[in-house]
Amino acid sequence: MRSLLIALSALAISPGLLAEEGPFDASASARAATVAQACDDAFKQAEAKALADFEAAFLSENRPQARRIELRERTDERLPADALNAQPGCRVEGRWAAIAVASDDAEPEPLNGRIETIDGEYSSECSAADEAAACKRRIETQAASDLRTLLQADDPQRLNGYRLAFDGFEGDQAFTYKGERVSVTMNGLFYFRLDQSEFGPITPAPGTQGDLRIERKEKDNGYDDLDVTVFYVWDGNNAADPNDLALSTNRWGLGLWVNNRLGVSAFWGEERPGIANDNHYVRNDDSRYGVFGIGLGYRLFDSRDMTVENSLYYVDTEPFDVTLDNGRVYETQDYIQTNINIKTNSSFGPNVGWMFTWKLRPDLSDYNALSGGWYVEWQF
User: Fold this and answer.
1) Cβ atoms of 147 and 10 closer than 8 Å
2) Cα 187 from chain centre
3) The dihedral sign for the CA sequence 209, 211, 216, 221
């Protein structure tokens, strides 16, 4: 089977056909209960600014031809909640163009011979290495189809009687050979000439036949949105060898993860020492002392379903000592902690997991360093 993969990274129509003027750039920021709502609010504010600039530029001038503005580009940026802002936010940057609106009695704009362009990245795969030219023709055909769709967005009948004839390409071309197969990628500006035809719109047939699949190529920003986490973990160390010392904690924490891989976090809470009896059950002392930790983490998997977080902390403990049930004297000391956290990893909302914790206290003997407990968080 031959297949065609069409990847559109950015599409832009040349301004000639639409008689654009401008641009009108505007930006705005907003915060709301959800990022989606914040982006909607910010976009409305930016659009209002662009409309005001448009009215100042055109409505104050006595121009004979009416115009309206149309959105050309939009960029959304997530703004996470922080210490100063309880709600998440969004910043939107937009670019609008002024479009001439022809009156009903205006003569149709001559289109024959006009050059139009579309900017994008397309890939085509053919089953035989000698079909590279056919792959290129399929790319040209798809680019022509996309350009026609864009040019007719406001008026589906506008190009009736015209065909888009390929008139050259400007950009990069890449050829990848895998055995008998060849993949061609063209990234740049495709030129087409509007040719009048008595037979109406003409779409040339692809050079090869087979399945056709179209995908939108996601824009690669080089980074993922930041993940902010608020978490709670109950690290209950309730089983150990007889007469071994065990430490249990409950902690709250904050984390910041970049690109869904690297993170920093801090926690604070209480820790309790205990001694295991002959049945391996740990009897905790009634006393507690404060702990604070700060560390680095790494997510093994980039999945947004499940992930495994490895973390290394330095834990600062409040000075404290106590005599436990078996007469053993326990004294606090700062230590290194490492974690393996198996958890869900939705980009926004609650997550749950199980955390294994190693409290590395080399100064202690008969000591159970490994413990585990439930982990819950809210990630946004």
Assistant:
1) no
2) 23
3) negative
